[in-house]
Design goal:
single chain; 100 residues; mainly alpha; two-stranded antiparallel ribbon; 5 helices; globular
Length: 100
Protein backbone atom coordinates (compact mmCIF):
# COMPACT_ATOMS: atom_id res chain seq x y z
CA UNK A 1 0.00 0.00 0.00
CA UNK A 2 2.77 2.50 0.81
CA UNK A 3 3.96 2.11 -2.77
CA UNK A 4 0.67 3.76 -3.77
CA UNK A 5 1.51 6.85 -1.72
CA UNK A 6 3.61 8.41 -4.44
CA UNK A 7 3.85 12.19 -4.75
CA UNK A 8 1.59 12.00 -7.79
CA UNK A 9 -1.09 10.00 -5.94
CA UNK A 10 -0.83 12.16 -2.82
CA UNK A 11 -1.50 15.24 -4.94
CA UNK A 12 -4.66 13.77 -6.47
CA UNK A 13 -7.96 15.28 -5.39
CA UNK A 14 -10.24 12.96 -3.44
CA UNK A 15 -13.78 13.39 -2.15
CA UNK A 16 -13.77 13.52 1.63
CA UNK A 17 -16.34 14.30 4.32
CA UNK A 18 -14.86 17.82 4.21
CA UNK A 19 -15.24 18.20 0.45
CA UNK A 20 -12.73 17.70 -2.32
CA UNK A 21 -9.10 18.01 -1.26
CA UNK A 22 -5.69 16.56 -2.12
CA UNK A 23 -5.14 13.08 -0.69
CA UNK A 24 -2.12 14.21 1.36
CA UNK A 25 -4.23 16.90 3.04
CA UNK A 26 -7.02 14.42 3.80
CA UNK A 27 -4.53 11.95 5.31
CA UNK A 28 -3.17 14.76 7.48
CA UNK A 29 -6.69 15.56 8.67
CA UNK A 30 -7.28 11.92 9.61
CA UNK A 31 -3.95 11.76 11.44
CA UNK A 32 -4.75 15.01 13.21
CA UNK A 33 -8.11 13.58 14.26
CA UNK A 34 -6.37 10.61 15.88
CA UNK A 35 -3.83 12.70 17.78
CA UNK A 36 -6.50 15.20 18.85
CA UNK A 37 -8.65 12.46 20.34
CA UNK A 38 -5.55 10.97 21.99
CA UNK A 39 -5.15 14.34 23.71
CA UNK A 40 -8.88 14.44 24.58
CA UNK A 41 -8.85 10.98 26.14
CA UNK A 42 -5.68 11.69 28.05
CA UNK A 43 -7.16 14.85 29.52
CA UNK A 44 -10.40 13.02 30.36
CA UNK A 45 -8.53 10.56 32.57
CA UNK A 46 -6.40 13.26 34.16
CA UNK A 47 -3.12 12.68 32.35
CA UNK A 48 -0.97 15.05 30.37
CA UNK A 49 0.25 13.75 27.05
CA UNK A 50 3.10 14.92 24.87
CA UNK A 51 2.10 14.21 21.30
CA UNK A 52 4.68 13.55 18.60
CA UNK A 53 5.99 17.05 17.78
CA UNK A 54 6.36 16.26 14.07
CA UNK A 55 2.74 15.05 13.81
CA UNK A 56 1.55 18.10 15.74
CA UNK A 57 3.48 20.45 13.46
CA UNK A 58 2.41 18.77 10.24
CA UNK A 59 -1.21 18.53 11.33
CA UNK A 60 -1.32 22.15 12.47
CA UNK A 61 0.13 23.37 9.18
CA UNK A 62 -2.40 21.32 7.21
CA UNK A 63 -5.43 22.33 9.28
CA UNK A 64 -4.79 26.09 9.44
CA UNK A 65 -6.04 26.71 5.88
CA UNK A 66 -9.27 24.88 6.76
CA UNK A 67 -10.12 27.33 9.57
CA UNK A 68 -13.33 28.69 7.99
CA UNK A 69 -14.57 25.19 7.20
CA UNK A 70 -13.89 24.00 10.76
CA UNK A 71 -16.04 26.74 12.25
CA UNK A 72 -19.18 25.59 10.45
CA UNK A 73 -22.00 24.45 12.74
CA UNK A 74 -21.52 21.06 14.44
CA UNK A 75 -17.84 20.67 13.55
CA UNK A 76 -15.48 22.47 15.93
CA UNK A 77 -15.93 24.96 18.73
CA UNK A 78 -14.52 28.44 18.42
CA UNK A 79 -10.78 28.83 18.83
CA UNK A 80 -9.46 29.32 22.34
CA UNK A 81 -6.72 31.83 23.04
CA UNK A 82 -3.60 29.86 24.02
CA UNK A 83 -1.49 31.09 26.92
CA UNK A 84 1.38 33.42 26.06
CA UNK A 85 4.44 31.46 25.00
CA UNK A 86 2.45 28.25 24.51
CA UNK A 87 4.14 25.36 22.75
CA UNK A 88 2.84 24.21 19.37
CA UNK A 89 0.80 21.35 20.82
CA UNK A 90 -1.05 23.76 23.12
CA UNK A 91 -1.54 26.21 20.25
CA UNK A 92 -2.99 23.43 18.10
CA UNK A 93 -5.41 22.26 20.77
CA UNK A 94 -6.54 25.86 21.35
CA UNK A 95 -7.00 26.28 17.58
CA UNK A 96 -9.22 23.18 17.64
CA UNK A 97 -11.35 24.69 20.41
CA UNK A 98 -9.92 22.68 23.30
CA UNK A 99 -9.67 24.48 26.60
CA UNK A 100 -5.99 24.30 27.44
Amino acid sequence: MSADLTPENLAKTVNSPFGAMPLDQFLSVITLDAITHTWDLSKAIGHDVELDPDLVHQGFEQIKPLDAMLRQPNLFDAKVEPPAGADEQTQLMAFLGRKV
